[in-house]
Amino acid sequence: MKKSDKKIENTLRETLTQVCDMTLGQLEGFSWLTHRVNYSHFPKSLRVTCVFDTSLELESAIAKGQDISLSELIQSKLEAAGIELKNIKTHVFFDSQQACDEEHAGKWEQRIALQTRGKPAA
Question: In CATH, what number does 3-116 get?
Answer without folding.
Answer: 3.30.300.30
